[in-house]
């Protein structure tokens, strides 16, 4: 479904008419508040499981939302986990940059390995 749809459709609505959206590239489930147009989001598998457990399947909207979440559960979980891994990797990379040696490298003109190139023989007879 998500491969052929250009404009994404919401996964569904809850009893308060809040819309639930899943964008594959973001790795989150977004919740659009029906009244204030504010947004919230779910970022982990545990939060998704808690959401699915809290839905009342006797209600029409929440049953539909639960079915959609079940249909895409594996894909959603993999994108949530991938996003978590990417964030952890980015943090590790930032820390790796900080952990590097703070020694200052000598400028090129002071490097002893290239100093011989500047040598001038003053004792040379012409």
Helix content: 25-40%
* SSE pattern: EEEEHHH
The mean pLDDT is 82
Give the number of helices.
3
The fraction of residues in strands falls at 5-15%
Query: How many strands, which pairing sense, and closed or not: the largest β-sheet?
Result: 4 strands, antiparallel
What is the CA-CA span between the terminal residues?
A: 85 Å
Contiguous low-pLDDT stretches (5 residues minimum) are none
Organism: Arabis nemorensis
Protein name: WHIM2 domain-containing protein
Keywords: Nucleus
Domain WHIM2: 6-71
Verbal overview:
It is a single chain. With 126 residues, the protein is α+β, with helices and mostly antiparallel strands. The protein has one domain (1-126). It is built from three helices and four strands. Strands 1-2-3-4 form a four-stranded antiparallel β-sheet. Strand 1 (12-13) and strand 2 (19-23) form a beta hairpin. The N and C termini lie far apart (85 Å). The model has no long low-confidence stretch (mean pLDDT 82).
Task: State the main characteristics.
single chain, about 130 residues, alpha+beta, four-stranded antiparallel beta sheet, 3 helices, WHIM2 domain-containing protein, WHIM2_dom
